[in-house]
Amino acid sequence: MTVEYTMTYNRRAAQTKKLLKKLLIHLFILGVGLIMIYPIVWMLASSFKPDYLIFSDPGLWPKEFTLENYRTGWHVVRDITFGIFFKNSFIVACIAVIVNLITCSMAAYAFARLSFPLRNIFFACMLLTVMLPTHVTLVPRYAIFHYMDWIDTYLPLLVPKVLATDSFFIFLMVQFMRGIPKDLDESALIDGAGPVKIYFKIVIPLAVPALITTAIFTFIWTWDDFFSQMLYLNTVTKYTVPLGLRLFIDSQGKSSWGAVFAMSVLSMIPITIIFFIFQRYIVEGIATTGIKG
Amino acid sequence: MGRRHSFNQWWVGYLFLTPWLIGFFGLVLGPMIYSLYLSFTNYNLLNAPQWVGLANFQEMLHDQDYLDSVKVTLTFVALAVPLELTAALAVALLLNKGIRGLGIYRTMYYIPSLLGGSVAIALLWKNIFGVDGLVNQVLAYFGIQGKGWVSNPDTALYTLIILATWQFGSAMVIFLAGLKQIPNELYEAAAVDGAGGWRKFWNITMPMLSPVLFFNLIMKIINSMQVFTSSYIVSNGTGGPVNSTLFYTLYLYRQGFSYFNMGYASAMAWILLIVLAVLTGILFLTSKYWVYYENEREA
Q1: How confident is the model at residue B82 (pLDDT cuts 50, 70, 90)?
Q2: Cβ separation of A245 and B97 shorter than 8 Å?
Q3: Cross-chain Cβ contact B229/A170 below 8 Å
């Protein structure tokens, strides 16, 4: 009797201990996670606070609620609104996505499915450029675009994508296309389809997950790209969102942090929406290929 | 397709490869070679490049700003990469215990990585580590008098290291995927042999995860060497205070596009490439001592 009792007691104690441990892990993960996203949530909350509260209130709930930050931030420069920057960023990012999908998938198809002389050498070259720091081509590229009279247009941002220089995505698609069964090609061949037809009818439809991953990351990286947009765009009306945000630090000193926060929050909305819609693709894309995210 | 060419028309391959070929020769290989040439010249875009031999490289050795930028960047890499990877691994291990709500936690930890590279977050960082920023407001709550972390040359770089570490989410996702690949039988067998948690970690988890760790390490080093946006925004493009956030790429940008010393900037870019190549090479050489590939076991 007592033996039995102590046994169930011990088991129950062990169970409680296990439960407690689980609870502690949950609390820890949740706590650290909340601390990590606190700055972002605080920025969101502070974008509705008047400036003096931003510098005195570490809490979230605005004691004084205002939309003034959004109004002043939106009209960042005389006659120019943030709407223009958003429009420009959307145009550049969307074209970049479309172009990358077309040319990277073409190159990937050639590497993964076709055979031609020097294929393996070119493939090795492509792989080497995945890790290449862009700075090593920076000055000559700038000189080329300057010579073409493309500075202060979107062409320096887009032409490299037309020419499939984002080799990372080619690599990603090659990996994916190699996994598509070859029997499909062969049966299509018997039906008289050529390589072009196979590209459109078989490989592209089956490579959709890789295409979605490419589209998502092209959009995010183009949207967030600061360096090349700053390098190539000079006229304020052509500015993209990152350059619009930089305007706030150029006029430093009396600049209002409320307005900075308001526009910063707006600038992050598109990427956040994309993330929540395509979360699965993003997580899988990072997990399988190690995209830097 | 191997040796058996399914399509005899090899030109079809080149047809599909045309955009890439033009890009590779016109925007990658050609510019690379040209920038190597430019690194031995004085060049300002408007006049023809002037051959100066090794002068650019010799100048680097005496250029205090250049030496500062090297020091800043190496300090950053040496601290941010291990911190980021350790945090990523630790959280991934906690999340891998079949915990409920994994999806929500993963999202929570990933969001800083998703947004962290943007100008918006760099601006936020500049604010929260300012004199009246969020960090000091919280410290004041505990009665601690903070200082201007971003405006102090002793601490400015550390705010950027925190920013990088804060973005450990993407590495964590990669670790999580790697942890899922480890077969459970290994742990069960170890448990039968009486191995505790610590021994399981060092004898099973770490070796099985080492290829992923290796990959993450190389990617992080390469990316951390090229940090630009955060240092530019936080320091208003100056790399200050007193060069304390003058990252290599920021200095390269200023040499090339503020002072138009484009030969010097090209020389800097080539040094960066060589250092990255050497570092990656060394890591690959050491990898056979600590990276464990499963097919070795089968072989």
Answers
A1: very high
A2: no
A3: no
